[in-house]
Design goal:
single chain; globular; mainly alpha; three-stranded mixed beta sheet; Rhopdopsin 7-helix transmembrane proteins; 3% strand
């Protein structure tokens, strides 16, 4: 049970302070990005589930990553779009704020864990190809996915609980487009130094805990690929890892900027930019990063479209 001695029962989100014309442009832009993100990731999920050629650990993890991307972007962007369309309606209750922050952080933590798993999967595929099917069997993949999801939702219970134990007596105006933890801490009248330090340590543990196996995996991957004698073999091996590595750079870069800092209450403008990278840009890029250079997926998607066309034609 959350206990908050302040009288705050709802928060007013400032969103993007700008003119109505700018709000219309932002609404059109973010609506387009949100729509493409949901449709693109849904296409990945459906294609991976339907086509038997994609029933392998790599695409199994990619399907779950796409599910996470849809859920993450849906925690805040629809409410943000509503606020851009009707600026004076961006009011969120305390309960909804708790739920939004918890879902966002939990899903994000699960995604980080999954990104680390995907790096290890690529390491096994490149460095131990003969034992790949034995190591990454269906039982292992299923348990890894379950652990990633459970870890994400359990690890964020205390951070969210600690945040809403604070007394919000300064104001109920959040200078953000969603219930950002840093901006919530800014409204607290309590001494937040200890809480912020613990949150910083937890962020370091979660982000670096998944980043380190990723770095180690790619160190071995690059070392192994460089030993391949043929240029075509090296190019093929690099192409299978390039999409995941690109995603890792964008995802971890924005997360490190947003969360791995001793002081959570940084300027709202920086928080907004970093949050947009995590919430909007990264999920939007996911379908393109993982499919445009993936011949196997493109072929499976093309065959699926032909099959659908034939069904509609008949």
């Amino acid at each position: 049970m959350l206990r908050n001695s302040s009288s705050v029962t709802e928060f007013f989100l400032l969103g993007f302070p700008a003119s109505q014309e700018v709000h219309r442009v932002l609404f059109a832009t973010f609506f387009f990005l949100y729509s493409v993100t949901v449709m693109g990731n849904t296409v990945i999920i459906v294609t991976v589930c339907v086509d038997k050629r994609l029933h392998s650990p790599m695409y199994f993890f990619l399907g779950h990553l796409s599910v996470l991307e849809i859920l993450i972007i849906s925690t805040a962007v629809p409410f943000m779009l509503w606020g851009l369309l009707l600026p004076k309606t961006q009011i969120i209750s305390l309960t909804a704020c708790v739920a939004q922050l918890y879902l966002y952080l939990s899903l994000g933590t699960s995604e980080l864990a999954l990104m680390g798993v995907m790096a290890v999967d690529r390491y096994v595929a490149v460095c131990n190809p003969l034992r790949y099917n034995i190591i990454m069997n269906s039982h292992t993949c299923l348990w890894v996915i379950i652990v990633s999801w459970v870890f994400g939702f359990l690890s964020e219970i205390w951070p969210v609980y600690a945040t809403f134990q604070l007394t919000f007596c300064k104001s109920n105006i959040l200078d953000h487009f969603y219930c950002d933890r840093g901006q919530l801490i800014k409204l607290a009248c309590d001494d937040t130094l200890f809480t912020e330090f613990v949150l910083f340590l937890m962020a370091v543990f979660i982000i670096l805990g998944s980043l380190i196996p990723t770095i180690v995996s790619y160190t071995y991957i690059i070392s192994t690929i460089l030993k391949i004698p043929s240029a075509s073999g090296r190019r093929k091996s690099f192409s299978t890892c390039a999409s995941h590595f690109t995603y890792v750079v964008i995802g971890y870069g924005s997360c490190l900027f947003l969360y791995v800092k001793p002081k959570q209450t940084q300027a709202a403008e920086y928080n907004r930019v970093a949050s947009l990278l995590v919430l909007v840009v990264t999920p939007f890029l996911n379908p393109f990063i993982f499919t445009l250079r993936n011949d196997k997926f493109i072929q499976a998607f093309g065959d699926g479209m032909k099959h659908c066309y034939q069904l509609l034609k008949d």
